[in-house]
Specification:
It contains seven helices and 13 strands. The strands form two sheets. It has an eleven-stranded mixed beta sheet with strand order 3-4-6-7-8-5-10-13-12-11-9. Strands 1-2 form a two-stranded antiparallel sheet. Helix 3 runs antiparallel to helix 5. It is globular.
């Protein structure tokens, strides 16, 4: 994973493919990486997101927008509040999802940038992959970088990737990449989706109506679709939906005793919104090289999310 702030204003990107490294020349990095003095405030960014217009055209490449913040330090009280809400141990170890939440304002700043052609609101979160390369002491300053990566046209619109990395003393210690969907008409034919079936042991969770608000209180993500049925209906949802990254983090908290100390990745695909309140089934299964996990509705017929934990970092 590469960002403009890592390589400078050059015009050559090295993109890691499955078994080889290919170089593509003359890919634009525009504008120059933005150095932020601190993590942005979400309050002002959500105001911009609400009014941002959509000027995107299918033949329009996305600009390689990126930003970075130096000297980011973890607020231990905030970390404890996150650990408590999700069910992680309240210790000196960062949950793998914590930096994704902490750096979300950097991503929203990119999505509200004047050069970003899509509306910030309404982007669908399809998947997220986090890699923990190394544990770092929580009092060690880090540099966080966020940036847009590649995009592709699909039957449902344009899928585009936005990633983050964390470095400590110049060493890569953590990364995250999310795939988003911008819904629009395309000429790509639809294909049948593979059927996701429950696997492993199950447990029933009751997710109450206030979970979106409580997660927002910790994460700062007060997107109206997560807060109440009334505010969610303004954006086309019949009820409030829980944050996708709450679902992923909650699954990992349940599996916390099986998480390696470092050198692992966690990928999750988000399939259907989890409306609030809901009863859901959590499944997990140990395989030879992976731990599988998933969330289904209470009948086990519809998947909200599925994912895996793996120590294979070949493509990380």
């Amino acid at each position: 994973m590469f960002f403009a702030s890592d390589i400078g204003p050059k015009t050559t990107y090295c993109i890691t493919m499955t078994d080889s490294i290919s170089q593509f020349d003359a890919l634009p990095i525009s504008p120059a990486p933005e150095l932020l003095s601190e993590l942005p405030s979400l309050l002002g960014l959500f105001g911009k997101a609400m009014v941002k217009s959509d000027t995107f055209q299918l033949d329009q490449p996305l600009p390689y927008l990126s930003n970075y913040v130096k000297g980011v330090q973890i607020d231990q009280n905030h970390l404890r509040a996150y650990q408590k809400l999700l069910g992680f141990d309240q210790d000196q170890k960062l949950p793998p999802t914590y930096l994704s939440m902490l750096g979300f304002p950097m991503m929203l700043r990119i999505m509200t940038h004047p050069d970003f052609p899509m509306k910030a609101m309404g982007q669908v979160h399809l998947s997220n992959e986090i890699t923990v390369f190394k544990n770092v002491p929580i009092d060690q300053p880090m540099t966080l970088t966020a940036g847009i990566n590649d995009s592709r046209i699909t039957a449902k619109g344009v899928e585009w990737n936005i990633g983050m990395i964390a470095k400590a003393d110049g060493e890569l210690v953590w990364s995250s990449e999310s795939t988003m969907l911008h819904r629009c008409k395309t000429d790509v034919p639809r294909q049948e989706s593979s059927v996701i079936v429950p696997a492993g042991e199950s447990q029933m969770w009751a997710v109450d109506a206030g979970m979106g608000r409580r997660y927002a209180g910790v994460s700062g993500d007060y997107n109206p679709i997560h807060l109440s049925a009334i505010s969610a209906k303004l954006f086309g949802f019949k009820k409030a939906i829980v944050h996708g990254m709450w679902s992923k983090a909650r699954c990992l908290a349940v599996l916390k005793d099986q998480l390696p100390d470092a050198g692992y990745r966690v990928k999750a695909h988000f399939h259907r919104p989890l409306f609030l309140p809901s009863n859901v089934l959590f499944y997990s299964q140990n395989q030879s090289e992976k731990i599988l996990f998933s969330l289904f509705n209470q009948t086990g017929e519809q998947a909200h999310m599925d994912g895996f934990i793996s120590q294979d970092l070949t493509n990380a």
